[in-house]
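Exercise 7.
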Amino acid sequence: MLNSYRMAAVAAVCAGFALAGTAQAQADIYGARPQALPAKVWNTLTGDAPVVIGHRGASGYRPEHTLASYELAIAQGANYIEPDLVMTKDGELIARHEPLLARVDLNADGSIKMVNGAPVLNRTDSSTNVWQLDKYADRLKVKTLDGQKVAGWFAEDFTAAEIRSDIRAQERLRDLRLGNNAYNDKLVIPTLQEVIDLAKAKSLETGRTIGIYPETKHPTYFKNFTDATGLKRMEDKLVEVLHANYGNDRNAPVFIQSFEVHNLEYINSKTDIKIVQLLNGSGTPFDDARSYADLASAAGLDFIKGYADGVGSNTNLMITLVGGKLGSPTQLIANAHQRGLAVHGWTFRAENVFLPNEFDSSADPAAFGDLAGQVKAFVDLGMDGFFTDQPDLGVAAVAALAVPEPQTYALMLGGLAGVLAMARRRKSSQAA
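Solution. The predicted structure, written as tokens, is:
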């Protein structure tokens, strides 16, 4: 009912704006000036509308971390696109969610699980076709990643040229986002520079600034790799590329993010580009003894503000989840804002399986629910931006919140009617 009312109200306002044009012409002649229409006041740190960040691009519609995914996110109105970064054997930064290009399952004893002589593919954490390429069968390895044994094909065991030659992206959530499988094996794995080139080209093409939001994935793991191989440290390579493209500029359309702590402190010593400390809903950063809950506290935020400009918060740290539904809001956003820290929430996904239960549309896990309703609950608290797999829906949700409430329409239209009445009265007076 509210949506139909809102649509009718929008139509009324559009008509009002047409009338306002007439009123303006009359006011110019007769001296009456209509008052400016009220603007939306956002409860964000800066007072600006929350930014929409294409999470791994438009990963709800295209395989994640591909130029096709990033380009679609931009077309759908995202303010930023997010490349997660891992390293190749020769030190190139490429966009992948994990060091594993494809992952296989392990037995309880840590050995690779095999069926009919073939390793069992992990169907939620394999994002390329490398597992199907016989020439790379001998690159399958078991490694320890942040203290956990995992197995698969790792980016640092391939040169950038090898990855570019015949390794192609696949849909990571292959059993949920079935439509994305149509793009499997067609899209190359982009480098950080290619993602930047796309953002800059689209900024010129569209006339709006498209930012990038790179994340250093498993930086301690990759520091061990670069220390052992004599390559440039991941953080140094990232800063070098960013400075070459944007300069050492705090106002650059860039945020650098990480789930670890001390690598961000290191980056802060190397650049003025904005930094965001990611906060998970549970657990502890791999390189720090404090829990994410500790870092989300007032004391933790006091620490974070010493090296970062914001926090990237799991939604559960902003509003607790109780029985699968949104519970009580926390003080995280208010506390962060008091310290001058922006808060960007993650991850907002439209499928029912990811939404709090009250926003589900059905029992179908892959069907879209009420993402806009979830976004509203967090934006109302003052969230400054959010990561979403469906940037079009995120942009639409923010646009809907920018529309004044129904009672405001009446005031706006009443004001316009008053201006017209005043113009008519003055015209009648002059005629007399």
